[in-house]
Amino acid sequence: MSKLLRNILVMLLLLTVITGVIYPLAVTGVAQLLFPKQANGSLVEKDGKAVGSSLIGQSFTEPKYFWGRPSATTPMANNGASSTPSNLGPTNPALVDAVKQRIDALHTADPGNTAPVPADLVTASGSGLDPEITPAAAQYQLARVARVRGMSEADVQKLVAAATSGRQLGVLGEPRVNVLQVNLALDAQQKR
To answer: pLDDT in tens for each of the 192 residues of the chain?
Structure first.
């Protein structure tokens, strides 16, 4: 019995060291060598300080900025430690009310905009952390951002185009605009 118990403890210790120490260190080392930006959170820096991640949405509410998708995370928006969808179905009154409030906020920020509101501006993504919007959502907001910033729509459109990524490998996913990237470009443009 004691020999069996000793073998069990040795195997437990050995597997703990392999799977709990050696393997994580090896994976971390390979990630740091091959993908250092991604392994460190894909952080976006401004003036030498981290201001966000290209993988996690940011909350922008000022009219001078493009707004991202609503976040379903709690207790605060875009909480990376609480990635979750809202789990509200399309007929749920709570979702309907939330969407109406978001549409009202968009209309309040840009009362003259009569275009249909793109769905991604009023509904959260599956993770609740989506950092990107569709090009249609960016176009919906373009006139407001240009007007509030005193920029031409053509200049803002160029910045949106620079922040737009196409389909991966030409066929996967949809074109998308990184909200943090375009907002940082707008701020940089205005500093000039």
So the answer is: 789 999 999 999 999 999 999 999 999 999 999 999 888 888 888 888 888 888 888 888 899 999 999 887 777 777 777 777 777 788 889 889 989 999 999 999 999 999 999 999 998 877 778 899 999 999 999 999 999 999 999 999 999 999 999 998 888 989 999 999 999 999 988 776
Strand partners, 172: 168
Contact between residue 138 and residue 168 where contact means Cβ atoms under 8 Å apart: no
Report the helix count and the strand count for the chain, using DSSP H and E: 7, 5
CB 175, CB 166: distance < 8 Å: yes
The token pair that represents 84 in the structure block: 């979750």
The model's pTM: 0.78
Give dist(CA 23, CA 10) in Å, integer.
18
